Amino acid sequence: MTAPSAAATTAATPDASLPLQGVLASLSKFEPPFEIDRFGASFGLHPVRPTGVVEFRFCFKEVPFEARTERRDGRPVLSLSGDLGVLPFTIENAARRRRLRRVLRAVRQGSGMRWIVGRDQHILVTGEIMLDLPLTPTAVIAGATALLLRSRPYLELIVSVAGES
């Protein structure tokens, strides 16, 4: 039998100064799926986000949306907000403004989302949904999809009326 070489001994001996070994050791403590708002801190890669909030942006039906997940009482909640632009002024197109106001009144009752016309005549849509644990990318996408599917016909109608000449 031959004695192990110095290189083999070094490779087999854990070295605390190597960050990769620390990460691999911490991986053995956890099983997937990994929660996206806690992933890095779980493995010593970087500290957890100070807020624990995950945010991203996307467009649906040409409307820019902002999505935000955070934990409330330990449960993940997804909040969506979409920017539908500015309600046209009466002088620009009185008929379109009336139709758009009528549609906005109707969607408030059936879409499950909040439709807001601000003082500056800016139209916003917002909504929230509780997500299942674990908080994975799939859970976030499923939550956003559920909110958007509830309001899709209303959103399409508003975009259509707002785009009229």
From the structure above, extract its key features:
single chain; 165 residues; alpha+beta; Yope Regulator, Chain: A; 5-stranded antiparallel β-sheet
Q: SSE layout and pairings?
A:
Layout: H1 6-12, H2 19-27, H3 39-42, E1 54-60, E2 63-72, E3 75-86, H4 90-110, E4 114-117, E5 122-130, H5 137-162
Antiparallel strand pairs: 1-2, 2-3, 3-5, 4-5
What is the CATH level 1 assignment of the largest domain?
A: Alpha Beta
CATH topology of the largest domain: Yope Regulator, Chain: A
What is the chain-wise order of helices and strands?
A: HHHEEEHEEH
The poorly predicted ranges are: 5-18, 40-50
- Biggest sheet, in brief? 5 strands, antiparallel
User: What is the distance, rounded to the nearest whole angstrom, between the alpha carbons of the first and last residues?
Assistant: 88 Å
Beta-strand residue percentage: 25-35%
Question: What's the domain count?
Answer: 2
Radius of gyration, Cα only, in angstroms? 25 Å
Spatial strand sequence of the major β-sheet: 1-2-3-5-4
Write the CATH architecture name of the largest domain.
Answer: 2-Layer Sandwich
Strands, count: 5
Quote the average pLDDT.
75
Structural class: alpha+beta
Indicate the overall shape: elongated
Oligomerization category of the chains in this entry? single chain
- Helix share, percent: 40-55%
Fold and architecture overview:
The protein is an alpha+beta fold. It folds into two domains: 18-51, no CATH class; 54-162, Yope Regulator, Chain: A (2-Layer Sandwich). The protein has five helices and five strands.
